[in-house]
Write a structure and sequence with these properties.
This protein is mostly helical and 111 residues long. The protein contains 5 helices and 2 strands; from the N terminus they run ββααααα. Strands 1-2 form a two-stranded antiparallel sheet. A hairpin with a 2-residue loop joins β1 (5-10) and β2 (13-18). α1 (20-30) crosses α3 (47-57) and α2 (33-45) packs across α5 (74-93). The longest helix is centred in the C-terminal third of the chain and has 20 residues, at 74-93. The radius of gyration is 20 Å and the shape is flat. It starts with a strand and ends in an 18-residue tail after the last helix.
């Protein structure tokens, strides 16, 4: 399913990952407790993940009931909120990069 792969660049290196819908589908197929927990976190953080859960569980009521327990669990919601807050705090440390501009001026050399 190469059309489901997304390439992101991290630290100058390309990294191929699956899109969110494929990740949810793979996690639903595995359906272990950690997988369902991960789906719960993803659904709290990303509306697209929540839509993927609904799409792939529409004809699987028992699986949907298991996933719903994680979606409704306040501990999962709290963990997702912590992740969101951590990302927000990390964002405050990032400096915007503007190509072609220096953030600090350099002193001119005297010859």
């Amino acid at each position: 399913e190469s059309e489901r792969l997304v390439t992101v660049v991290m630290h100058g290196h390309p990294l191929r990952i699956v899109d969110i819908e494929t990740l949810v589908r793979l996690k639903l197929k595995a359906a272990g407790p950690k997988d369902l927990y991960d789906i719960g976190i993803l659904a709290h953080l990303n509306a697209e993940a929540k839509e993927a859960v609904a799409k792939h569980c529409v004809h699987k009521p028992r699986l949907l009931a298991r996933v719903k327990r994680y979606l409704d669990d306040p501990r999962v919601a709290a963990a997702a909120a912590e992740i969101r807050e951590g990302e927000r705090l990390l964002g405050t440390f990032r400096k915007p990069r503007i190509r072609g501009h220096h953030t600090q001026s350099r002193p001119k050399r005297r010859e």
